[in-house]
What does this fold into?
Amino acid sequence: MIRFAWRQFRFQAFVVLGLLVAVAVVFLLTGPHIAHEFAELKGCKAKSDCNYLDNSIQNGDQRLYNFGTALSVVFPALLGIFWGAPLIARELESGTYRLAWSQGVTRSRWIVTKLAVVGFASMIAAGLMSWMLTWWASPIDTLNANRFSTQVYDTHYIAPIGYAAFAFAVGVAAGVLWRRTLPAMATMLVVYAAARVIFTENVRSHLLTPLKVSVKLSKAGAYGFEQTPHGLQFLTKVGSLPNALVFNPVVVGKHGATVTSQWLATHCANLIQHGGPVSRRTSVGFKGNGPAPKAFNECIAKISANFHQVLTYQPADRFWPFQWLEGGIFLAAGIALCALSYWWLRKRVV
Amino acid sequence: MSTALSATDLGKQYGRKWALSNCSLDIPEGRVVGLVGPNGAGKTTLLHLAVGLLSPSVGSITVLGQRPASSAEQLGQIGFVAQDTPVYAGLSIAAHLQMGAALNSTWDAQVAERRIYDLGLDPNQRAGRLSGGQRAQLALTLAIAKRPALLLLDEPVASLDPLARREFLATLMEVVSEHKVSVILSSHLVADLERVCDYLVVLAASRVQVNGEIDELLSTHHRLIGTPRDLENLPDTVQVIESSSTDRQTTATVRSADPIMDPAWSIESVTMEDLVLAYMGQAEEQRRDLVRSRGGAK
It folds into this structure.
C-alpha cells in the first residue's frame, strides 16, 4: 500500500521537490556572499567605515531575505492546498474510492497509509525549506537579533514543521467533508490562515507566563509627544531586548501614576511654550529630533526622573521552548484533524 | 451448497428515505445473477452493501459467509466493478496492474497481462485516454486478476455502445466458464441479462420483488387471457402479479407452481422481459397507491 500511495503522490511530490531544489540553488549561490558581507558589517568599528555595504545589503540581501521568508510562510499553506486537500477529495469526487476500497486492503489501512505517506512528506518538505532558510539567513538573523519577530519565528527552525502537519491535515479534513477538491482547497486556505493569525496574535505571547522588567526611560528606547485634542500625549516605542519578544510597554510612576497631559502641562511648560511639538504629523520626532531639542530633552529628563517603563516580555532563552511548544501544538491539532478525517471516512462517507 | 450472498431484513436509509428496505436474499454460489430494476431501485445500494462500501442501517448481509470488507482476505475474494467503471485517469494501464499487484495478495499478474494483450491495449497508455469500452475492460481486468470467488458488477455496460457491450459480456462469459466464479450483475436492461444470467433478482421501489432460478421462474409464471370476472375465480394457489383489463378482456401475469387447468383462460408462457416488467409494474402500482393514500389522509 505504501508503494501505491507513493505512486499516486509521485507527480505532486516531484513538483515540490523541484521547488525545493530551486530554492537550494539560489541559497547556495548567494549564501556565502551574504555571510561574508555580514561578517564585514559586524567587524565595522564605525558605521561610516561600512557605508559601502549598506547599498548591497538593503537592495540585494534584504529583498532576497524578504522573499525567502515570505516563501517559507506560504509554503505550508501550499502543501495543504496541493497535497492535503486533493488527497482524499479527488478519490471521492472522481469515484475512484470505489475502486480503491474494493481492493484487498482494508479501508483503515488505505486511509492510514495515505495520511502517513503524504503527511510525513509534508513535514519533511517544510522542514527542509525551514532548514535551508535558517542556514542561509543566519548571518542576517544574528545581526538583527530579533528571533521572536514573526519574520524569523514563523519561518525558521522547527515551527514550520508543525504548521505543515496542520496545513496538510486541514486540507485532508476539508476534502473529506466537502468531498470535492476545489472547495476543499479554498476552505483549507481560509481555515489555515485564520488559525495561524489568531494563534500568532492572541496565543503565542501567552504560551508561558511573560516576565516583567522595569527599565529607566533613558534606556527604554525612543520617545515622542503627540498633540491631541485632549492635550499633549507622551509616546514610547517598544523598548528592545535582544532576541526577546517584548510587548505592552507601560510607563508608570509612583503609585501607578501615568504621564498625563496635565502632568506635562505642569512640568514641561517649556515644551509647550516653544510652540509644542511641531512636525510633519502631529508628533515630535523620536530620539529628540524635534524642533525644540533643548525643551524636548529637558522634558524627557523630567519624565525619566519620575517615571520608569515596565516591559512585559518573553526572554530570548525561551525561544526554543516556544518553537517546540508552538510546533507541537500545531502538530497535535493536525493529528487530531487526521483522526477526525479517519473516523469520518470509516463511519460517515458513502 | 454455500451462499454467495445472504441478506436478512437488510435496509439502508439516507436521511428519511430508504434506498433499500426489507431485503432478504439467499443467492447460491456458482450462479450468474441478474440484478434488475429501474434506475433508483436500490441496485447500487445493494451492491455497495455487498462490497462493504456502505454499512447497513438495519438487518445484516454476509458475502461468501463473511461480513463485507471485514478483512483484507474477505475483500480479496470479491471482484468489484463499480458503476461507470472508475479508474485513475492519470495513471497508465501498467500502473493500474501494479496497483492490483500491490494491493491484492491473490493477484495473478499473468491473467492481467494476457487480458490487456488480448484486448490490444498499450500498457503505457493513460487510463484517462481510454474509450468507455476499454475503460470497462480495464476495470473488469482489475477485478478478475485478483482471482475472486465472487464478481460484483454494477451496470457495467450501461454506458457502452452495442458493440462494446457485446464484447464486454462475451468476456464476462469467458471468465465465468474459465474461473468458475460467481457473478452478480446489475442492469436496468433485461436484454443484457437474458443471455448471460441463470438467476434473477428483481429490485424495484427499494424492495426485492422476486428472486430465483430463471428456469424455475419462467416455468411457474404464466400469462392468462380471459374475461374480467374470471380473475376472482382463480384458486388461492395462483398469485396475480399484475393484470390489466378492458371491458371484455383481462390479461394477467400470475405465479403458480401448479399448472392452471381452468378452461376459461387461454394460457401463454412468459419471457424474462414479461416477468421483469410485470414485477416492476406491480411495484410501481403499489407505490402510486401508497402516495394516493397518503394524499387522501391529508
About this structure: Chain B is about 35% helix and 30% strand. The radius of gyration of chain B is 22 Å.
